[in-house]
Specification:
About 40% of the residues lie in helices and about 20% in strands. By secondary structure, the protein is an alpha+beta fold. It has a five-stranded mixed beta sheet. It is globular. It comes from Actinoplanes palleronii. This is SCP2 domain-containing protein.
Length: about 150
């Protein structure tokens, strides 16, 4: 199995990414996401988001979503996903007011985008905090082609 690193992420597809997250212990994911590789890994994941966007499921959805990924020493990274006119764009320089802001730690984020955690359960247990349009939060996974199982 591939080692979890920014280099390996750039060479694997979504299904392999999902398997990699699921096969890597939480302690190892936490260690990696507390290292200098964190920014590269988050960039890699967010840069893929537009390619996994399912415009046919979005319909006329217009939304700005802020993903606040908490880190060590109270530092967090915020990425902005904009869904409008049947397209999805992402930036790590948020400038628009969000319709939804979700805050979670890096390991929880990796599990959600890898399809290795039920977002509703993670919200109910407090691992994901959401502010704003909660119906959008409940349906966000349907807007992206997230590997299953």
């Amino acid at each position: 199995m591939t080692e979890f690193s920014p280099e390996s992420l750039s060479t694997i597809g979504p299904k392999e990414f999902s398997q990699l997250v699921k096969s890597t212990p939480d302690s190892k994911l936490s260690e990696i996401m507390a290292s200098d590789a964190r920014g590269k890994i988050l960039d890699e994941v967010f840069n893929r988001m537009p390619t996994l966007f399912r415009a046919e499921k979005a319909g006329d959805t217009q939304a700005v979503i802020h993903w606040i990924i908490t880190g060590p020493n109270g530092v967090s990274d915020t990425y902005e996903t904009v869904i409008e006119n049947g397209a999805c764009t992402v930036t790590n320089q948020p400038v628009r007011d969000p319709k939804l802001a979700m805050t979670m730690d890096a390991v929880t984020f990796l599990k959600v985008v890898a399809g290795d955690g039920n977002p509703m359960m993670l919200f109910m247990t407090g691992k994901i905090k959401a502010k704003g349009d909660l119906s959008l939060a409940a349906n966000i996974a349907k807007l992206f082609d997230i590997p299953k199982g």
